[in-house]
Amino acid sequence: MRFEIRQADLAELVGYEQSYISALEVGSKGPPTPEFIDKLVSVLELSGSDERELREAAIASDRKLVLDHRAPRDLYLMFNDLRSRAVELNAGQIRAIREVIRLSDQASPNRPEALKRLPRRRREEVST
Q1: What pLDDT is attached to residue 35?
Q2: How far apart are CA 43 and CA 50, in angstroms?
Q3: The pLDDT value given to residue 77
């Protein structure tokens, strides 16, 4: 979505301060409030797809992540690793991580049961 509208004009249309609009634009403010998004959708008369894109962007802009206290330890460790290296990741690495995360979205709901581990062959079977 791209609109040619000045911050001051948008601020007036939605009834917010220009400084709030500016802070959102440069990323120094957290995600916009649902009320702000509702006003923006209404004022700009966004299409359904533009509204979805805006709401997804607002959710994605939330910089705070809270893990469920019941989450497995490995999840905490994974997020710690990610946090400590996030600024060093290049675009390819970010895409790869996102693709791995999306793999579960593509899995079939009729997934076969997990493969069972095959028993080890005895030494004499291997050498023959």
Answers
A1: 94
A2: 13
A3: 96
Tell me if 18 sits within 8 A of 7, measured CB to CB.
Answer: yes
Q: At what angle do helices 7-14 and 18-26 cross, to 10 degrees?
A: 120
Residues 11 and 56 in one domain: yes
Does the reported pTM lie above 0.85? no
Task: Decide: 67 and 75 in contact? Cβ < 8 Å.
Answer: yes
Token couple for 81: 């690793």
Q: Which domain holds residue 101?
A: 73-106
| In a shared domain, residues 17 and 53 | yes
Question: What token pair was written down for 23?
Answer: 């802070």
53 lies in the same domain as 77: no
Tell me: the pLDDT tens digits for 67-96? 999 999 999 999 999 999 999 999 999 999
How far is 31 from 84, CA to CA, in rounded Å? 22
Q: How many domains does the chain have?
A: 2
Amino acid at 111: R
Identify the band that residue 65 occupies on the pLDDT scale cut at 50, 70 and 90.
Answer: confident
